[in-house]
Amino acid sequence: MSATEVVQTAATTAGPAPGPAPRRAAAVLALARFEARELLQFVPVFSFLLLYVGYTAWQLYSGGDGMGAYPVLQDVDRGTQIKPELLGIALLICVNRAALRSRRNGTDRHDGILPMEPWRRTVAHVLSVVPYAALTALVVAVEFTWAALKPGASGHGSFFELAVGPLCVLLSGVAGVLLARLIPSFFAAPLVVIGGYVLLVLAAVNLDGSHGARWLLPTVTESGAGPLPSDLLGRPAAWHALYLTGLILLVVCGAVLLSGARTRTALAVTALALAVTVTGAVGQAPGDSAALKAARAEASVHPERVQSCTVHGTSTYCAFPEWSGRTADWAAAADRVRHLAGGAAGGVRLTVRQRVEARYGLADDAAIAPLTGPGQVSVGTEWGGDRSAQFAVGVASVLVAGDERAGSEVCDARVVTIMWLALGAEPDPLAGLRGTRLDDSVEGSAIALTPVASVAMTAGQTDVVRQLLRQPRYGVIAKVKAHWTELTSPRTSLTRVAQLLGVTAPTTGEDSGDTCDW
């Protein structure tokens, strides 16, 4: 064999020589675009992407009334983290399947003669996930911006909390690529998804008290308590975003290394990714600091030290800084109740104070003790819809009983006066009655809620209140003002109250003034 034939044979065996670096990069990007389009043809990816976008659009369209008109932005940003999870799971399975296409078609043994190295094809599969993460980021941005532009919005969002959803989608996709390089089997991805779900459920139960371990999960949801001021959240969102970013890079490097790119550059990037991941994990590991616990205690026990107060009319309204613009809404709701009251109650000076219970963190909805000072009314950090009606019940109970604690202990016929004052000026009084009651009913006995307490309603009292709410408002107003003293006396029976207000007395036997044993 001649020298020329030897060279030609060697060239044929080695395959085409790699092209220039710009051309190789363009080829990787072209393959990534192709794979991204192919992913959209997978039914799970297309379905969950459509479901995610459609459900978010429906939420934005239908969330303009009630509490949706008064979003708290530090809760809105966290609320964007859960919905992309299904899209992430679909991407994990489908990217894994795409990365195993050559094995499934029996062409993987020919990969060595292709001009593009295996590790570059791995990079292309990784890059095919980026458009879906970018689309998730766009949906998250629209969702948050929509809430932030509402006139009733309050609080402050976090860029790092908003970044968790897109980062988790990206992490899921690249995990599918790594899984394909680790276990080249079509059944591995579904099994990993099922096993991962079980592990996440077990982790959510068993790691509830371990701050550092819980934050190793991709998403950390903490819900239960009402919205807290943003400076009392104590969530290490920036560290967690750094941790997820490092984890994504680490997974990508693992897939590339398993594809044969064991160069110094690849090893250096892997070491850097590992350092970033560890840094983020260590940064988010510490729990609540002593300063944060002290701030939470002060806001819970002595909110007056961190609040600003505004006078509207004859009453004072005190709020945390992020809710200072909402005092006008509270004043309008309180004035509607006071205008229906008779005697001196119509002109009483109220002190409305915003209150939270932050000492137990974001996951515990701890009760807040009613205030005992005369004319003091509590209001929460949520507003609109049922919360507005419940605040009106709290104001009415103070006007009738004198203070919040006494109002929560009312169990006689004064409940009728309280509930009518709270709901008589509502556009839809019966809907307001349903919204204040714990069981969403308008019949029978139930508990009517206030921001910090409750009012117990018997079936007979509910019947009288329902009749009053169906009467012309101004006729009832005149009767309430004319008989105010008797209507607010604990000795007045339910039958007498019904007689004074011109409605039919119930036939439930509730004829005494004291019905506390119902």
Mean pLDDT: 87
Order of strands side by side in the largest beta sheet?
Answer: 1-2-3-4
Structural class: mainly alpha
**What form results from the Cα inertia axes?**
elongated
In percent, how helical is the residue content? 55-70%
Tally of DSSP β-strands: 6
**What integer value in Å does the Rg equal?**
32 Å
Number of helices, counting only DSSP H or I runs of 4 residues or more: 23
Query: Stretches where pLDDT falls below 50 for ≥5 residues?
Result: 1-17
Instruction: Summarize the helix and strand pattern as letters.
Output: HHHHHHHHHHHHHHEEHEEHHHHEEHHHH
Sheet bearing the most strands, described? 4 strands, mixed
Give the CA-CA distance, first to last residue.
108 Å
Strand content: 5-15%
Question: Your description of this structure?
Answer:
This protein has 518 residues and is mostly helical. It contains 23 helices and 6 strands. A 4-stranded mixed β-sheet has the order 1-2-3-4. It has a two-stranded antiparallel ribbon with strand order 5-6. A hairpin with a 2-residue loop joins strand 1 and strand 2. Helix 8 runs antiparallel to helix 9. The longest helix is centred in the N-terminal third of the chain and has 24 residues. The N terminus is likely disordered.
